[in-house]
Amino acid sequence: MIMKKMNSTLLIGSIALVLAACGNEPASPNPQQLSPQAQEQKGASAGATTTSFQSLFQNSVFLGDSITEGMSFHDVLDEGNVLAGAGKTAEFALKDIDELSRRNPKHIFIQLGSDDILWPTDNPKEYSLKNYAKLIGLIKEKLPQADITLLTVTPVTSEAERQEPRYGKINEYNQGLKELAGKEHVGFIDLSPIFSNGSDLYDSDGIHFKPEYYTRLLDLLKDQVK
C-alpha cells in the first residue's frame, strides 16, 4: 500500500506511488495550457479548500491504515490530525491508544479493514471485528467524551480485485462494520456516495487515491464536526 514510512508485509510485492493526473476532456485545457493567472487562481482555490478543512477538523483525528495516511501524505490535513500507517489493522491500532489519548481529540474517525481482510487467518472478518470492538472499548475508556465514527472500507478497482480476490470481501466486511457500530453505539458513515459519479479518484494501483478523494471525503464528513 502507499509507501510513506514502510512496506506492508501483507501485500505481494511493493506498490509504487504514482501521482498521475486525471485525463482531461478534449475541450478542457490541461494545466500546462492554462495562463499563469488561471493557474494562480486554481492553486489559490485549492489552497483555500485545504485550509478550510484543516481548520474544520482541527479537533479531529483520523485513525487508520495507508489509505487514511493519504490525508497527511497529500497535505489535505496536518499530520497531527492523522494517526495512520501502511499495513495497519484493527489489532495493530490497539497500540495507538496512548498516542491517541495524548492528542485528546473531540472527534475520532476510524477507517480500518483494507489490510484486515488480507490477514492470513481462517476468518479475517471475525478476527478483525473482534479487535475492532476492543479498539472502540479502549477509546471509550481513555477518551469518554470523544465522538467515535467508523468509516467503511473503500472499494478497489476491478483490476485490483482481479489481482487480489480477497478484496471481493469488502462489502461483506462493511456490513459487519455497520453491525458493530450499532452494537457499540458509535457513528457509522458509508463512503460509497463519494464514488457514485464515476470520477477517476484512484491512484495507479487501483487501491489508493488521488488528493481529490480526500477533499470529497472531508466534505462528506464536515457535518459530523459542526
UniProtKB/TrEMBL annotation:
InterPro entries: Ester_Hydrolysis_Enzymes (IPR051532), SGNH_hydro (IPR013830), SGNH_hydro_sf (IPR036514). Residues 30-45 have a biased composition (Polar residues). PROSITE patterns: PROKAR_LIPOPROTEIN. Keywords: Signal. Residues 26-45 are annotated as: Disordered. Residues 1-20 form the signal peptide. The keyword NAD does not apply. Residues 62-214 form the SGNH hydrolase-type esterase domain. This is GDSL-type esterase/lipase family protein.
